[in-house]
Specification:
Layout lengths: L2 E6 L7 H14 L3 E5 L3 H6 L2 E3 L27 H13 L4 E6 L1 H12 L4 E5 L15 H22 L2 E6 L6 H10 L3 E3 L7 H13 L5 E6 L5 H12 L3 E5 L11 H19 L5 E6 L2 E6 H6 L6 H10 L2
Parallel strand pairs: 1-2, 1-4, 4-5, 5-10, 6-8, 6-9, 7-8
Antiparallel strand pairs: 2-3, 10-11
Helix pairs in contact: 1-9, 5-6, 6-11, 7-8
Length: about 325
């Protein structure tokens, strides 16, 4: 194998640049060229690429997001678009591809593998909803961002005796909500995997306030309910001031944590090694501190189960 391609797709997250840097330098060490595609699968279709060298990845390790950028590509969902992407890869002399992204990106990687093109996927999703990896790229940095924000809000909540409802990302996964609730001492984590009774929450908060605990933090995953509706219900039931903070895309950015820099470096290295060894159609992930490879077909057809022990711990510590 003489030339490998790499792209980032789907939602950006911190750690992507560390992964690209590691993959590129691993390829260089093995005498393999690396072609970088801009804006994900759109770059494959538009043939938007450049040949990387050491200067290309200099100074990107500490940067959040992805310097290759990312974009939606509806055309790749069509057979004509996929054939065009495949033809462009062959024309550029690319013999294997590293795809960094979430579930949709990994499905795209599996599609190329099914068309006979060697592909290795790398999980990148701050929701931590990709199966067969303990952690995805960007999760740890997002958690640190959330904790910093909530700690700041807690100062205001205690100063003014208020309840704050803080919305974090997680359309189908409550990982960020539950883990950040544990780490910042929130009273409640509301997640999409578990039904919640707002009247029970209000009764518990009312009891807390009667005991003299006059502020509260409720963290809600975006897929579990509307933060404003929950805040209004708490205000009406308790008569206490409530405020809403939606952290939004703030969670995605920022310099990657040590964990994400190390994870990205390990995943990028192993992805290139697998391609050079002749492997394809697999995703590299973290399992019990080891880097393991799982068939993309299994990853795509599976769902990551919620960590019930984390949910129970968040509930117990919030009492």
């Amino acid at each position: 194998m003489k030339r490998i391609g790499i792209l980032t797709s789907g939602g950006d997250c911190s750690g992507m640049n560390a992964t690209i840097r590691s993959a590129m330098r691993t390829a260089l060490g093995k005498g393999v060229e690396m072609l970088a595609y801009r804006k994900g699968f759109l770059g494959l279709i538009k043939n938007d690429h450049f040949l990387m060298d050491n200067r290309s990845v200099s100074g990107i390790l500490q940067r959040g997001g992805t310097f290759l950028q990312s974009a939606r590509c509806e055309e790749f969902k069509l057979e004509t678009g996929r054939q065009k992407a495949l033809a462009n890869l062959h024309e550029a002399g690319v013999e294997g591809l590293v795809v960094i992204g979430g579930d949709g990106s990994l499905k795209g990687a599996l599609t190329l593998h099914g068309m006979g093109f060697p592909v290795i996927g790398i999980p990148a999703s701050i929701d931590n909803d990709i199966p067969f990896t303990d952690m995805s790229l960007g999760v740890d940095t997002a958690l640190n961002n959330i904790i910093y924000a909530v700690d700041c809000i807690k100062d205001t909540a205690s100063s003014h005796a208020r309840a704050f409802v803080i919305e974090v990302m997680g359309r189908n996964s409550g990982y960020l909500a539950s883990v950040s609730a544990i780490a910042c001492g929130a009273e409640y984590a509301i997640v999409p995997e578990v039904q919640f009774d707002l009247s029970d929450i209000c009764a518990h908060l009312r009891h807390r306030f009667q005991e003299g605990r006059d502020n509260a933090i409720i963290i809600v995953a975006e897929g579990a309910g509307e933060a404003k509706t929950i805040a209004d219900a708490i205000k009406d039931a308790i008569g206490f001031e409530t405020r809403v903070t939606v952290l939004g895309h703030y969670q995605r950015g920022g310099a990657p944590s040590v964990f994400d820099r190390l994870l990205g470096s390990r995943l990028g290295k192993r992805a290139v090694e697998l391609l050079v060894e002749g492997e394809s159609g697999k995703m590299v992930g973290l399992s019990c501190h080891s880097i393991v490879a799982t068939p993309l077909e299994e990853v795509v057809r599976s769902a990551k189960m919620p960590q019930e022990d984390m949910l129970r711990l968040a509930e117990m510590l919030g009492i």
